[in-house]
Amino acid sequence: MAMNQNNTEYYPLILFPYELEQALKAEPQIEEPLKPDLPTDPISGVLFIVFMGMFVFFSFKILYNEDSKIYILGMVLLMVWFVNSRFSLKKADEAYKRDMEAYKEKLKEHKKRLQEITNVGYVKKYRQEEIKKILKKAQSPIFHKEVIKFGNQELSADIFKKRGASEEFFKKYLKTFFGDKIFINVAMGYFVGARSYEPDFAFIDEASNLHIDIEIDEEYSIIDNKPIHYIGIDTKRDSYFISNLWIVIRFAEKQVLEQPESCCKEIAKVIDFLISDSSYLEKLSRYDDVKPTKRWTYEEALQAIKDKERDKRKYLL
Q1: Which of 80, 121, 129, 249 maximizes the CB count within 10 A of its CB?
Q2: 303 Cβ partners below 8 Å, 6+ apart?
């Protein structure tokens, strides 16, 4: 199954860490056997010309020189070198033939192995193993208690944001379909003098160490009527979760209120896709896929405030 996590213009927005994206398209690799080098003749090219020149020279001197002993010695040494080079070349040829036979056998094994590792089932299993390795490195959140000790500081319950009506609405569905894998009392990154990052919801599977940040995006805040979650505003936050090897899934509030089961189905797809756990997806298979909703710009969020778009959805709560 393929996940379309790259379309950033529409909700649901699904963001994977770079390491996971690489693992999802990883191909098994095996090293191809090296072909033996063809042996070279020690007497070839320029050396052959030199050899023939020396042979003619010594032959001439031996025939036409009375004191030819030194030239005869030179001729003997030249011939010894020649015979030795022929013997060395013969040994190199024999070794080459043996190496080529071994190479052909290795090449047969390589091709056979290549067919095995390019099999769809093998590639899927290989990628799953790569995904497992990456998920094991995901940073676990801090679980909220009445008081959390952080260094010399004590952080109380007020560090966690108040939950909106749409979050409370969606929580019932998440708990129904994902049970105790859904957490609302977690936080990531306690920064001195600044707020931590708290997911709207976190799906955490301890066995695989899969962590999913589940967010509900509204066009504006009901409290102060200011645009929120417009394109680009949450990039830093999303990057923090992704850098800690979390998956981020963002839904529009409209989707959560109108298609809560379909949103849960989208989460189940991601779970099945990454850790091959289809149990959640099986429970949600009878529901339609979530309908895409276009993400908004700052200007479009301002228009949504004027049109009171969120008020129009209150009847769904």
Answers
A1: 249
A2: none
pTM of the model: 0.75
Q: What residues form DSSP beta bridges with 212?
A: 203, 247
Nearest alpha-carbon partner for 211 in 226, 220, 201, 219: 201
- Side chain identity at residue 156, one-letter code: S
Residue 211 DSSP class: E
Residue 185 is encoded by which pair of tokens? 């009392």
Residue 238 in contact with residue 248, Cβ under 8 Å?
A: yes
Kindly report the average pLDDT of the chain as a whole number. 85
* Percent of residues in the chain assigned helix, strand, coil, to nearest 5: 50, 15, 35
Task: Select from 310, 163, 167 the least CA-distant residue to 225.
Answer: 310
**Does residue 85 have a pLDDT over 60?**
yes
Largest CA distance in the chain: 125
Percentage with pLDDT > 90 across the chain: 54
> Of 265, 258, 163, which Cα lies nearest the Cα of 215?
163
The predicted-structure confidence for 28-67, as pLDDT tens digits, reads as follows: 888 888 998 887 776 665 566 666 676 677 677 666 665 6
> What is the identity of the amino acid at 177?
F
Which residues, at least 6 apart from 67, have a Cβ–Cβ distance to it below 8 Å? Answer: none
